[in-house]
Amino acid sequence: GAMMDNRFATALVIACVLSLISTIYMAASIGTDFWYEYHTLSPAENVSEAGRSIWEEFVSKDADEKTYTDALFRCNGTVGLWRRCITVPKNSHWYSPPETDMTTNCISFSLSDQFVEKYIEPGNHNSGTDLNRTYLWRLQFLLPFVSIGLMCFGALIGLCACACRSLYPAIATGVLHLLAGLCTLGLVGCYVAGIELLHKKLPLPEDVRGEFGWSFCLACVSAPLQFMAAALFIWAARTNRKEFTLLKAYRVA
After folding, report:
1. Are strands 124-129 and 36-40 parallel, antiparallel or unpaired?
2. DSSP-assigned letter for residue 1
3. Distance between terminal CA atoms of the chain?
4. Which residue, among 95, 73, 92, 94, has the nearest Cα to 84 in the 3D structure?
5. Where does the chain cross the membrane (predicted)?
6. What is Dmax (Cα atoms) for the chain?
7. Which one is predicted more confidently, 66 or 162?
């Protein structure tokens, strides 16, 4: 029996480590602003004179999607799930040389921004609601929290399992991690689809490159870790249950 127990113990320890890493990755990706990055090839000179007004529009309460997306294009913007950032010159006096030191300024999406309707033509509220983009955006905001919640709930069940020295709850923990992995995959899918649809409506200017950033990559890595943890939890619980039944049968015989 000792040999077998070691195998399960190892599987469970690895599963717990994978689960922990994926939780940290998810938390880091939710909290950082590099889901999507724009690289503006000729920013400095055209920003100095317009910098102040771009910045004021970017942070204003009623900045619509088109306004802030244009600013992201023009000023090396980065976007997270919660915040959007642009890089502008520190002091935009008309007499300062264009190569002034730049500073990155961020503004958070308010809760109402997260749930606000997206329009068929960004920035034009007479063009009607774009349901696809509206719901993709809401999902990309909610799914990471569901994913982390499921993993934390799984961890709680796991702790209870350790306290009761039972492996049955490991199956529940595994299933919760499987669901968390599906949520994370859904989040990544929604984000990619949302960005694609946005860029169809607001194409990138000639001199701007866009790419998915490292925060997005963390979420992508988190999903397979959750699936691997789920598989290990479920495998350990099922195989152990079989062994246990065999042992019982053997004892009875």
Report:
1. unpaired
2. -
3. 17
4. 73
5. 141-163, 175-194, 214-237
6. 95
7. 66
Task: Please report whether residue 50 resides in a domain.
Answer: yes
Asked if residue 240 lies in contact with residue 167, where contact means CB atoms within 8 angstroms, the answer is yes
Q: Count the helices and strands in the chain (H runs, E runs).
A: 7, 7
DSSP state of 40: E
Name the β-bridge partners of 211.
Answer: 37
243 CB neighbour count, 10 Å cutoff? 15
DSSP string, 60-110: STT--HHHHHHHHHHTT-EE-SSEEEEEEES---TTS-TTPPEEEEEEEPP
Task: Flag whether 79 is in a domain.
Answer: yes
Q: In which residue are the tokens 């993709």 written? A: 136
Query: pLDDT averaged over the chain?
Result: 87
Strand partners, 111: none
Quick check: is 251 in a domain? no
Q: What is the DSSP string of 17-51?
A: HHHHHHHHHHHHHHH-S-SEEEEESS-HHHHHHHH
Q: Do 75 and 102 touch, CB atoms closer than 8 A? A: no
Pick the more confident residue, 31 or 125.
31
pTM attached to this predicted model: 0.88
Sheet holding 208-212, edge to edge: 102-108, 83-89, 78-79, 36-40, 208-212
pLDDT for res 100 = 62
Residue 245 has pLDDT above 80, yes or no: no
Would you say residue 210 lies in a domain?
Answer: yes
CA distance 44 to 89: 8
Give how many domains the chain has, as a whole number.
Answer: 1
- What pLDDT is stored for residue 29 in this prediction? 96
Instruction: Find, among 20, 10, 81, the residue nearest to 225 by Cα.
Output: 20
Q: At 143, which CATH number?
A: 1.20.140.150
Report the pLDDT value the prediction gives residue 159, as an integer from 0 to 100: 83
